[in-house]
Amino acid sequence: MSVEQTRPLSASRSLRLPIDWRFGIRAFLWLFSLTLLTLLMTTSRFF
Question: Is the dihedral of CA 1, 3, 7, 23 positive or negative?
């Protein structure tokens, strides 16, 4: 399931950052998109 295990050398060489940091940013973006979708749905319902 993890893409980092397939090519760990290139990822560590290019970013030099822990995997938790990237996963946190990914989860944050996912939650942000979900909230935007819910807001759009509610606004479309009201208007």
Answer: negative
Instruction: Take residue 35 and report the two structure tokens written for it.
Output: 């909230």
pLDDT in tens, 37-47: 999 999 887 76
Kindly calculate the radius of gyration of the chain based on its CA atoms and give it in whole angstroms. Answer: 17
The domain limits of the chain are 17-46
Cβ neighbours around 11 below 10 Å, total: 16
Q: Give pTM, 2 decimals.
A: 0.47
Are residues 4 and 19 in contact, defined by beta-carbon separation less than 8 angstroms? yes
Query: What tens digit of pLDDT does each residue of 1-47 get?
Result: 455 555 555 555 555 566 677 788 899 999 999 999 999 999 887 76
